[in-house]
Structure formats: structure tokens, C-alpha cells
Design a protein that fits this description.
metal ion binding; EC 3.1.26.4; metal-binding; alpha/beta; single chain; RNaseH_domain
Length: 287
């Protein structure tokens, strides 16, 4: 009797046949198939209990692997939580250190404002400068820059804005944020203003480089033209304005200083805002 015609009965067993389905039915545990009677090799018979044991073994191994994976995930999470606690503790110390160093500015009564810039795909410009090449028009349009100006919780002067109609880079966004804060101070007739930024570029420019560049007719020591000259000149004009005394001070970025965090958030929120670009060739030549 061929395996395909065998009926299930109380004497039926399971046999694994090569080239067939995983288990074939045989009419009697002691019998052999017609193929075997014709000289074929004796094939081992696999009973139901053996099959169940194999399936149980697979299930047990699967559960063991799953448990090991879960244990590993728990272990990694515990390590990450510990690292986060250490980082948070370290950040708290850094924040306290910064606040203590700037306590006079923070409690002077002079308006304080935090500014920050953000830029998506800024690496396209960085790579071009590194390679001494120009950024293509197509790549320029992929770069999006924005800035945030934070005066306080729910303050009416808070700003979250895309960098308009000009080359989009992180440094330009940082500059634009500081410029906007000074303009707001002038518009509101503040006699003095303290700006906190995490951009060393802006801090160094405002406090050290501006006068040196101006003395050299806006050229570097190497004779090269100053980058972002349009915004640099605008910042210089605002610094020279007699109606407001501006101080720009560095704040450590991304360690949890509340004002810096809020300015960063405002800057990043503006990245997604749509902006109709002018043709890249129409951007300022000094940009």
C-alpha cells in the first residue's frame, strides 16, 4: 500500500521519507514500505512522541534565546540609565559652575536673551570648504538654516524663524540670531542688552575680530575676504549704535542651561518652515 493511500488507524505510525512531506503515515509499525521490500534501505521510523519531543526542544531553545535577548536588553538599558545619571549629574555641576561665573550678568537687571542657530545638511558647505570647491546650486537648495531668540517663557519677543533669502549655513544662522536680538533691543528701547550664545564664532567675532577685520579693510591676515561679510558688517554697525550697549557672552551648549535649551528648540522648530528661495545666484556675493 502506497503512503498516500494509507488511512489513519490505531496501529498507524509516522515515518520520515526523503523527498516526501516531513512525516508519512505507515499502516503498521512493524511493516516496511513496498520500496523497502524491493531492496531499498531501511528508513528509521519516527513515532509521534519523538516528533513531539523535537518540537518541544525547538520551543525550549526559542524561549531560551528570547530570554537571553531580553536579559541583554535589560542589561544595556541599565548601563544607559547609569550613564545618563552620571551625565546628568555632570551637567548639573557644569550648569552651576557657569551660573556662578556669570551671576553678575544674570542678576544685573539688564535684559538677558538667549540665541541659537540650526542648520540641516550644513555638512555640504563644510565638505566644500574642506575640499576647496564650490557648493552646487542643487546642493545649496538642500541646506536649511534657522534661528531662535528666547527672552523668557511665553515672552512676546520670542522668535523661531527661517534664515531668509541667503546662503543657508549654521554660522550665518548664529549671526542672524544675534543680529535679530539686538534689533529687538533697539526697537524696545533697551539701553543695554546681554546676549548668551553657544557659538564661539559669534562670541569671538563680536569681542575680538570685528575691529581687527575693519582695520584690515575686512580682510583676514592671509589677505582673504571675510566670510559672511554682509552679516559681519551689519553686526558691526549694531555694535557701534550709541543707543544700546550690547554684551555677547558664551553659554555652554547642550548641557541643560534652560535658556540655551529653549533657544535651540525654537531654532530647530523653524527648520521645517517653508521658505521660497531666491535663485542661488541672487544671494549676496559676500555671503
Amino acid at each position: 500500500m502506497r503512503p498516500s493511500s494509507i488511512l489513519l488507524s490505531s496501529s498507524t505510525t509516522l515515518r520520515h521519507l526523503p523527498g516526501s512531506r516531513p512525516f508519512e503515515l505507515l499502516s503498521n509499525m512493524g511493516d516496511t514500505s513496498e520500496d523497502q521490500k524491493k531492496g531499498g534501505r531501511h528508513r528509521p521510523v519516527l513515532g509521534l512522541s519523538s516528533a513531539d519531543n523535537q518540537l518541544s526542544g525547538v520551543s525550549a531553545r526559542s524561549k531560551k534565546i528570547k530570554k537571553q535577548k531580553t536579559d541583554k536588553q535589560k542589561e544595556m538599558k541599565a548601563i544607559q540609565d547609569q550613564q545618563r545619571k552620571v551625565s546628568d549629574s555632570s551637567n548639573i555641576s557644569l550648569i552651576e559652575e557657569w551660573e556662578n561665573a556669570n551671576v553678575e550678568l544674570l542678576t544685573s537687571g539688564i535684559p538677558n536673551v538667549y540665541v541659537d542657530g540650526a542648520c540641516k545638511n550644513n555638512k555640504l558647505f563644510k565638505n566644500a570648504r574642506k575640499n576647496g570647491s564650490r557648493v552646487s546650486r542643487a546642493d545649496r537648495l538642500k541646506v536649511k538654516a534657522s534661528y531662535g531668540v528666547y527672552w523668557g517663557e511665553k515672552h512676546p519677543l520670542n522668535l523661531s524663524r527661517r534664515l531668509p533669502y541667503m546662503k543657508q549655513t549654521n554660522n550665518r544662522a548664529e549671526l542672524a540670531a544675534a543680529i535679530e536680538a539686538i534689533k529687538q533691543g533697539l526697537a524696545n528701547q533697551f539701553p543695554a542688552l546681554i546676549i548668551f550664545t553657544d557659538s564661539n564664532y559669534v562670541v569671538s567675532m563680536f569681542n575680538e575680530w570685528l575691529q581687527k577685520w575693519k582695520d584690515r579693510n575686512w580682510l583676514r591676515v592671509t589677505g582673504e575676504r571675510i566670510v559672511n561679510l554682509d552679516l559681519v558688517k551689519e553686526l558691526d554697525q549694531l555694535k557701534s549704535n550709541p543707543n544700546i550697549n550690547v554684551q555677547i557672552t558664551h553659554v555652554p551648549g547642550h548641557i541643560g542651561v534652560p535658556g540655551n535649551q529653549k533657544a535651540d528648540q525654537l531654532a530647530k522648530e523653524a527648520i521645517s518652515k517653508n521658505l521660497v528661495h531666491e535663485h542661488p545666484e541672487a544671494w549676496p556675493k559676500d555671503a
